[in-house]
Amino acid sequence: MSGSRFRSAGQFSPPRARRGVKPKQGLDDEAMEEIKEAFNLFDTEGKGIIDVRELKAAFRALGFQVFQLFDEDGSGGISFRNLKRVANELGENLTDEELQEMIEEADRDNDGVVNADEFYRVMRKREDPLDDLDSDDDF
């Protein structure tokens, strides 16, 4: 096999099920269907498997979706108001000062909002575990 491959969700059987132990209730049918649809979007070869490049593309796309959750008004940037709304929706009790500090830390061009590039830079600050999978020789 050339390169690293990940199997489709439908190709896995839960370890507990293989051992005769009934698995706990997991995702409902609707959630599983959404996952399968998302998987199929990134299975560019239609083989029921995705390689590391396709998996990375999926994670980048998910990052874009997260940005859109913050940028509800579609302005192309995350404002203080956007960040405060999301923090409140998540039940985070952050002060206005803490939220403003978050904006200022991420806002590299000092325009008062966090644009998509700045947002992704913050998201990538943590080491990406998939960076180690760049080489097909890893497996």
Automatic annotation (TrEMBL):
Among SMART domains, the record links this protein to: EFh
One Pfam family linked to the record:
EF-hand_7
InterPro entries for this protein: Centrin_CML-like, EF-hand-dom_pair, EF_Hand_1_Ca_BS, EF_hand_dom
Entry keyword Protein biosynthesis: no
Annotated stretches, region: Disordered:
1-28
* Signal peptide (from-to): none
Annotated PANTHER family: CALCIUM BINDING PROTEIN (PTHR23050)
Which Gene Ontology terms cover its molecular function? calcium ion binding
Q: Which UniProt keywords apply?
A: Calcium, Repeat
By what name is this protein known? Answer: EF-hand domain-containing protein
- What domain of life? Eukaryota
Q: Which PROSITE patterns match?
A: EF_HAND_1 (PS00018), EF_HAND_2 (PS50222)
Annotated ranges, domain EF-hand: 30-65, 66-93, 94-129
